[in-house]
């Protein structure tokens, strides 16, 4: 009862944010630059939250998330531009194909652990990029033209759905199974949890929402090129998750929003931006290896200690 | 005869990978860290070599030595500043720090000199000589002989000297080594110094061979060298040499068959196949990893 009330409360809050954004846009209070920034924020938020499920919740260190972003972007672009279907179909198609790619990548690689998994996912993302580079149908290295279809409404609601699905997944028994894998894979295996199943499931869900983000991203830019989905993009997404706190959904959301602001203001100084990013990454890892929020959620700050029982720590 | 030519080209490219892979494999063997910044040490080595030859008019071998020395110092600084504190932290934290260091080096270089390409000066003429009907460039022979010389030197250091013995001991069991009176910190720094100097040498000969260098040149060869290290069995020195040369030959063959755009994908496919089917690598045993 209590929990569902909190849920509806957040949903209303989210709708208010949407309403304010939409009103500001329709009354031309904010110009195209800031409108684009809001949409980019939603895209980054989706990417951060979907990677958070893989790294933060399940503890599988994947650094190839841009590969699924690329799959979502290209598949959705094919659906709208070549097949002439509506945008919503394109989003779904991009997401589903990205999820299939996630399954394809996840089933062989998730047997690996730690460093090897990281390198294998990076390798797969590079293979995806090289494959796209070599397909003439989607324009190869020159890229593919995509018409602008993303609006604040699409971007906001896809991001909202992403957050709701992943937060509810985390709180379900499946989510607890994933957390147990993060904490100790051998122990959770011994408790009868099918670790391979849950790892692959988390990976596929993460890939699904990366695909959604890809569809929104593709239709927000006028041209998509394989070069935008290199491993630097994967590292960008990784920074959101790491800075926010490995295992904190609200942390990922906050850092995605903050870093989008920062990179928008530093857009004219890309080197400076990357120097700051990398310094932040190193300093956070040296002095606060759990990230800014650790595994805590922002809602934990408002809870009184008496109630307890909701921490994600153990 | 053309195949012999391709084979020799492959081996000489592969020996560059092997030189970089040695640094990866030694560092991984000793502190279980994938040093992502290693590819950038290679890049810094190439730039030091470039400035030494083009601006300070040194000859090729002097530039090679200078790049090796400065890269060794650079590697030790990276280790002391960034990695030393992370010895007892999680693997993920160490890996993220390594990625951060790598990005920091790349973009600091871009910040100071821009991202544009630089053409390597031609210090040594590339002549073609014919051996048994195969046309072989003198650069290939030079690269091959420099790499093999360095590898023999490395084997000598690791197997015959005191510091090499310490490195093997630390990679086997750091705590036991410390109890035996080995200075573990210095040994780890020495490993970084040796690995980085090899990467610096690889940078200079890469510049000579490909003639184009830029601040991001280290990323792809770095990843490929890592693949080479995994292919040969990470932590095993001869494995890195064989893995690197094998990778070079495979790439040359893929290019020669007309799939040059797929060359980079071939390396990653090899990586995934080896990780899935034989993660300990060609020379690996199921037992613990060694230097």
From TrEMBL, chain A:
Pfam families assigned: BPD_transp_2
InterPro entries: ABC_transp_permease (IPR001851), LivM-like (IPR043428)
Primary residence: membrane
One Gene Ontology term, aspect cellular component: plasma membrane
Subcellular location: Cell membrane
Top-level taxon of the source organism: Bacteria
Residues annotated as transmembrane: 7-27, 33-55, 62-81, 87-107, 114-132, 152-170, 197-217, 237-262, 274-290
Membrane topology, from the record: Multi-pass membrane protein
Record-level Gene Ontology MF annotations: branched-chain amino acid transmembrane transporter activity
Alphabetic keyword roster: Cell membrane, Membrane, Transmembrane, Transmembrane helix
Organism lineage string: Bacteria, Bacillati, Bacillota, Bacilli, Bacillales
Coiled-coil zones: none
Protein name: Branched-chain amino acid ABC transporter permease
From TrEMBL, chain B:
Similarity annotation: Belongs to the binding-protein-dependent transport system permease family. LivHM subfamily.
Protein name per UniProt: Branched-chain amino acid ABC transporter permease
KW Nucleus (keyword) present: no
Sorted UniProt keywords: Amino-acid transport, Cell inner membrane, Cell membrane, Membrane, Transmembrane, Transmembrane helix, Transport
Membrane disposition: Multi-pass membrane protein
GO terms for cellular component: plasma membrane
InterPro entries per UniProt: ABC_transp_permease (IPR001851), BCAA_transport_permease (IPR052157)
CDD domains: TM_PBP1_LivH_like
Organism listed in the record: Metalysinibacillus jejuensis
GO biological process: D-alanine transmembrane transport; L-alanine transport; L-isoleucine import across plasma membrane
GO molecular function: L-isoleucine transmembrane transporter activity; L-leucine transmembrane transporter activity; L-phenylalanine transmembrane transporter activity; L-valine transmembrane transporter activity
């Amino acid at each position: 009862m209590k929990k569902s009330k909190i849920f509806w409360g957040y949903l209303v809050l989210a709708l208010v944010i949407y309403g304010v954004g939409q009103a500001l846009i329709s009354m031309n209070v904010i110009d195209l630059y800031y409108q684009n920034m809001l949409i980019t924020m939603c895209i980054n938020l989706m990417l951060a939250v979907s990677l958070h499920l893989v790294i933060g919740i399940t503890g599988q260190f994947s650094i190839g998330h841009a590969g699924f972003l690329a799959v979502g972007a290209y598949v959705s672009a094919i659906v709208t531009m070549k097949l002439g279907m509506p945008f919503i179909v394109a989003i779904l198609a991009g997401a589903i194909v990205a999820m299939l790619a996630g399954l394809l990548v996840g089933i062989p690689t998730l047997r690996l652990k730690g460093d090897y998994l990281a390198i294998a996912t990076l390798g797969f993302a590079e293979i995806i990029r090289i494959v796209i580079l070599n397909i003439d149908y989607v324009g190869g290295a020159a890229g593919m033209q995509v018409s602008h279809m993303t609006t604040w409404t699409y971007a906001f609601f896809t991001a909202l759905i992403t957050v709701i699905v992943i937060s509810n997944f985390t709180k379900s028994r499946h989510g607890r199974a994933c957390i147990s894998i993060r904490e100790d894979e051998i122990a959770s295996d011994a408790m009868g949890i099918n670790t391979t199943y849950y790892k692959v499931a988390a990976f596929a869900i993460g890939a699904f929402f990366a695909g959604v983000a890809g569809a929104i991203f593709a239709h927000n830019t006028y041209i998509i090129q394989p070069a935008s989905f290199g491993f630097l993009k994967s590292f960008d997404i990784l920074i959101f998750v790491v800075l926010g706190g490995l295992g904190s959904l609200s942390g990922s959301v906050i850092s995605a929003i903050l870093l989008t602001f920062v990179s928008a203001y530093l857009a004219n100084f890309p080197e400076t931006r990357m120097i700051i990013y990398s310094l932040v990454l190193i300093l956070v890892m040296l002095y606060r290896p759990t990230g800014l929020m650790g595994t805590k959620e922002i809602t934990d700050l408002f809870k009184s200690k008496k109630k307890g029982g909701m921490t994600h720590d153990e | 005869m053309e195949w012999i030519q391709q084979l020799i080209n492959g081996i000489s490219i592969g020996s560059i990978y092997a030189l970089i892979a040695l640094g990866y494999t030694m560092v991984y063997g000793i502190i279980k860290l994938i040093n992502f910044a290693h590819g950038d040490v290679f890049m810094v080595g190439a730039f030091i070599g470039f400035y030494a030859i083009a601006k300070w008019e040194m000859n090729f071998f002097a530039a090679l030595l200078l790049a090796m020395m400065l890269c060794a110092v650079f590697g030790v600084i990276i280790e002391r500043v960034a990695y030393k504190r992370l010895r007892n932290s999680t693997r993920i934290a160490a890996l993220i720090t390594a990625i951060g260091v790598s990005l920091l080096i790349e973009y600091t270089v871009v910040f100071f000199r821009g991202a544009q390409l630089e053409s390597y000066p031609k210090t040594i003429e590339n002549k073609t000589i014919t051996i048994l009907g195969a046309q072989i460039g003198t650069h290939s022979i030079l690269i091959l002989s420099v790499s093999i010389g360095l590898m023999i030197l490395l084997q000598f250091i690791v197997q015959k000297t005191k510091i090499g013995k310490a490195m093997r001991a630390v990679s086997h069991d750091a705590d036991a080594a410390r109890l035996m009176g080995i200075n573990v910190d210095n040994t780890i720094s020495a490993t970084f110094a040796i690995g980085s100097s090899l990467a610096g040498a690889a940078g200079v000969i890469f510049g000579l061979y490909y003639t184009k260098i830029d601040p991001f040149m280290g990323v792809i060869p770095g990843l490929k060298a890592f693949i080479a290290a995994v292919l040969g069995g990470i932590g095993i020195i001869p494995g890195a040499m064989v893995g690197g040369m094998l990778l070079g030959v495979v790439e040359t063959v893929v290019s020669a068959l007309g799939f040059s755009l797929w060359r980079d994908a071939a390396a990653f496919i090899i990586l995934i196949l080896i990780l899935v089917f034989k993660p300990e690598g060609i020379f690996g045993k199921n037992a613990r990893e060694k230097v």
